[in-house]
Amino acid sequence: MSIPQQNRRGVEISGRVYDAVSTPVARAAVTLVDTSGKQTGRATTDDTGHFRFTAPNPGGYVLITSAPGHQPDAATVTVGGSPVRLEITLRSSAGLRGVVRAATTGVPIMGAAVTLTDDRGDVVDSRLSGPGGEYAFASLAPGTYVLAAGASGYRPAAVAVVTAETGTAQQDVELADGAAIRGSVRVPDEPRPTVSVSLLDDAGQVVRTGFADEHGHYAFHDLDPGTYTVVATSYSPSRDVVRVDHGERTRHDVQLV
């Protein structure tokens, strides 16, 4: 059975990819899929934005085009007996960047967890801030997002941000210092026994618990302002009331007898 000459050679599809201001887009991926979703052709644009490949047969296809920093595009292509020439325009995608800093000192915070969620609450992307507290999200669709950041020893913060059709939005995040209670537990005997240290709120509910280390030191970080009760247990329990204010570092030692 002979195969028609047209089907053996395929039908050429070529064209050029531009951005919104008619600048050629290099290294854009152009993919052709058939009605079942199977890839039938693929090319990458050159420095002038040109691409070329062949469709295996006449018919209906979907052409998918994507490039870094741009929003992807999908278009229906009908292939007949003649070569197809296309002009494709990609819109630039929005971006978001900024710096995570300590609110009281302005010092950049390295390793802060930065999370971006959309208006439905779904996580879009997340990353850790860099050595200078910097973070960046690229290739975002325009819209409203919630940007949240948190780091050890600081109160987490969240802000609403809006990205436009193009360009990179700037949003810095300041994290307030969390209050802390730290100190040591002294015991009369050696070797030192295991000492449990708990923190109770005004209602008597346990909000934190831990153990003193081999030197008797303990610490509770990132606390809300208020009055707490420190309970250390090994021999007879010790219970002391401690008051902390916003961002305050409070030392409280415990003597077990």
Automatic annotation (TrEMBL):
GO terms for biological process: carbohydrate metabolic process. Keywords: Secreted, Signal. The keyword Secreted applies. It comes from the Bacteria. It holds the Pfam family CarboxypepD_reg. Belongs to the serine-aspartate repeat-containing protein (SDr) family. This is DUF1416 domain-containing protein.
